[in-house]
Write a structure and sequence with these properties.
- By secondary structure, the protein is of the alpha+beta class.
- The chain folds into four domains: 172 residues, Jelly Rolls, CATH 2.60.120.430; 96 residues, Immunoglobulin-like, CATH 2.60.40; 276 residues, Glycosidases (TIM Barrel); 71 residues, Immunoglobulin-like (Sandwich).
- Helix content is 20%, strand content 36%.
- It has a nine-stranded parallel sheet. A nine-stranded antiparallel sheet has the order 31-33-34-39-36-37-38-35-32, covered by helices on one side. Strands 1, 3, 4, 6, 9 and 11 form a six-stranded antiparallel sheet that branches.
- A hairpin with a 5-residue loop joins strand 36 and strand 37.
- Helix 2 packs parallel to helix 3, helix 6 crosses helix 7 and helix 7 runs parallel beside helix 8.
- The longest helix has 18 residues.
- The radius of gyration is 28 Å and the shape is globular.
- 45% of the residues are buried.
Length: 653
């Protein structure tokens, strides 16, 4: 804490006492005990020091791909009864992401930051900004199993993709306790009918170590119905249970009830939460009636004004007509459309329908529901979903409802609820989201059935000169693992940001081709290219604002037409094991057709030179599905030459 005036210091101390906050590190004594850790990338020039009662970090990230660095120290904290942990930060220079790490005595950790719930954790604040972790609400981006009552080490972690240089100051690591022992219940509306939607609620009692709790259930007239837990110790400051809406094995009638926790020990008191039981509506399992198809699409800016066009219906219709006609003529069959004003939904969908073009439309009312930090009720989700489907569900050009772009971990429960109700109301058009964090995708596929998983990978940055694939291959592998066998669609980089230093650059045609064929070899059954629309002052797309093609457009549409010839074969393939072993700078996947035929897809990882892959496959004759070239495998090996960034789809005859 900067002590530029005694009055300021006194005011801050008084506020902390009033609010029940404790500053556990204000760097007033310097940075003794703090040390660097977890360096990755080219970060050797990064330094830290004490400055005016704060921790100063001069980050100098020079790696073309992921760079990260942490400063950490031993610090014993008991957060069992804590409501939040916060710190203040300000920065200059390039904006980078910040994460707060908390380690327990067994090495387990919590990692709070932008890849989880805390999207405001970054350095781009010219003035001091308080960043707060709400321990019961916010999701850990990784780890997540640390004992908060036994924290032994604390770290500030700085992360950036590509080069970045700047300075961040960190101060006032602060703990805020719950003002009293507290009962937390999520969700507060339960529908215990066995449909998998809000069938149970999670009950959590929190308080200081040494406290004990008794949890009871009261009816609408505050009469005792049942004791759910009696005199349970708050080990580690917490006690939890799951409740299924039943008492002595019988489901409660629909109505309003109260859960009450009484606390005894170091602190005493009572905490209550009103809950609602309503099992009247049973949602059917997620079963989509949509037919699998192979999208060859683009991301398309739905707000005409963002792309420099008139936003009235007539002007928007001209903008949409020109784009969809052009895309259809060049081999694309659909577009994912964010930011379309609700007043233009029908205009956009009608234009696409006239051009026999598919649309995945970002639907703002459903995005708002998924993005909400508070829990949702089934009734409010149904009302919003029904309104959207009644309005635009009649358009055959509508393929999917985009319900959130790049959802973080803490949005997944709301995502699943919206998806489930949307599937019941319109089973022909699934919920859609593109993921940029495989941790969030892994949580989704763990909790629900999806029609497909969608993820983006953008590896080409200005600090990463061509030819290079950067971190594309390991990131693709991580997304594949998180997909858990679901159908995969990949969103690939076909854009640049020329006006911002150290940002993204256009990929070369060979790099774009490598992105595409590596995705197919991994098993993707759909590809999108980001982004078609040029957005002045923001993104450089495939076409300029006036519709003039950029240098990126021709290699992209040529790939679209190439993949289009392969799509009828690719869309029905199923994985055949883990994939063949490969000698050489390439990846390969093996697949089966519905009739049991073997298809092997081989893709180069090198966009800058020819490579030869030796693939372990069953002996026999193979034919390139695109060129018709013949290949033969003997002794369990097949030699496959690949030009820069190229791939081959080989069918065993």
């Amino acid at each position: 804490m900067r002590r530029t005036a005694v009055a300021v210091a006194c005011l801050l101390t008084l506020s902390s006492l009033v609010l029940g906050e404790t500053v556990v590190e204000d760097f007033a004594s310097g940075i003794s005990g703090w040390e660097p850790a977890m360096p990755y990338g080219d970060v050797a020039a990064t330094r830290f020091a004490a400055e005016e009662g704060a921790l100063r970090v001069d980050y100098d990230f020079r790696g073309a791909e992921t760079n990260h660095w942490m400063v950490i120290r031993s610090m014993k904290l008991d957060l069992a009864a804590a409501e939040s942990v916060s710190f203040t930060i300000r920065g200059t220079g390039d904006d980078v992401l910040v994460f707060l790490f908390l380690y327990d005595s067994r090495g387990r950790f919590m990692n709070y930051g932008p890849h989880g719930s805390n999207t405001d954790f970054h350095t781009g604040y010219p003035d001091w900004r308080k960043l707060t972790v709400m321990l019961e609400r916010d999701s850990s981006a990784q780890g997540g199993d640390a004992d908060l009552g036994d924290i032994q080490r604390v770290g500030f972690f700085f992360w950036h993709l590509g080069p970045a240089k700047g300075t961040a100051w960190v101060d006032n690591l602060t703990i805020a306790d719950f003002p009293a022992p507290k009962l937390v219940v999520r969700p507060v509306a339960i529908s215990p009918n066995g449909d998998g939607v809000n069938d149970t609620i999670q009950v959590l009692a929190r308080g200081p170590r040494g406290c004990r709790t008794t949890v009871t259930l009261l009816d609408g007239n505050s009469r005792l119905l049942a004791t759910l837990a009696s005199d349970r110790p708050l080990d580690g400051g917490r006690w939890r249970m799951s409740w299924d809406g039943r008492v002595r094995g019988r489901r409660l009638p629909d109505g309003s009830y109260t859960l009450q926790a009484s606390f005894a020990g170091e602190k005493t008191g009572t905490s209550t939460v009103a809950v609602t039981v309503d099992a009247s509506h049973r949602w059917p399992p997620v079963r989509y009636r949509s037919k699998p198809f192979f999208p060859i699409g683009v991301w398309f800016e739905g707000a005409p004004s963002y792309a420099g066009h008139p936003a009235d219906p007539a002007g928007a219709k001209a903008y949409y007509d020109r784009a969809f006609s052009d895309l259809k003529a060049h081999g694309f069959n659909c577009a994912a459309v964010p930011n379309c004003p609700e007043s233009l939904w029908e205009t956009l969908l009608q234009s696409a329908q006239e051009h026999d073009f598919g649309i995945i439309l970002e639907v703002a009312p459903l995005v708002a529901l998924v993005s909400r930090r508070e829990e949702l009720t089934e009734a409010e989700v149904y009302t919003a979903v029904k309104s959207v489907v009644d309005r635009i569900g009649k358009y055959r050009s509508l393929l999917r409802y985009q319900v959130r772009d790049e959802p973080p971990l803490d949005a997944i429960p709301n995502w699943v609820l919206v998806q489930r109700i949307l599937a019941a109301v319109d089973p022909s058009r699934p919920a859609f989201s593109c993921f940029c964090w495989y941790e969030s995708l892994g949580r989704l596929t763990q909790e629900t059935t999806v029609s497909e998983v969608v993820f983006d990978i953008y590896p080409h940055r200005q600090g990463n000169p061509p030819p290079s694939m950067g971190s594309f291959v390991p990131t693709l592998a991580a997304f594949k693992a998180a997909s858990r066998g679901n159908r995969m669609w990949a969103v690939l980089q076909a854009f640049g940001i020329s006006h911002a230093p150290n940002s993204w650059r256009y990929p070369t045609p060979e790099e774009l081709r490598a992105q595409t064929y590596l995705s197919l070899a991994a098993g993707c059954q759909g590809v999108f290219y980001f982004i078609y629309s040029h957005m002045p002052g923001y993104l450089d797309g495939m076409v300029a604002a006036d519709g003039t093609p950029t240098a990126m457009y021709e290699p992209t549409w040529r790939l679209a037409q190439e993949v289009g010839k392969l799509a009828p074969l690719l869309q029905d393939l199923r994985p055949a094991g883990e994939g063949p072993a490969v000698e050489g700078e390439a990846l390969a996947g093996s697949f089966r057709t519905p009739a049991g035929g073997l298809v092997v897809i081989v893709a180069s990882t090198q966009p800058g030179r020819d490579v030869t892959a030796r693939v372990t496959v069953p002996d026999g004759n193979y034919r390139d599905a695109l060129s018709g070239e013949a290949f033969r495998a003997w002794g369990g090996k097949m030699r496959v030459p690949l030009s820069p960034g190229h791939g081959r789809v080989l069918v065993r005859e």
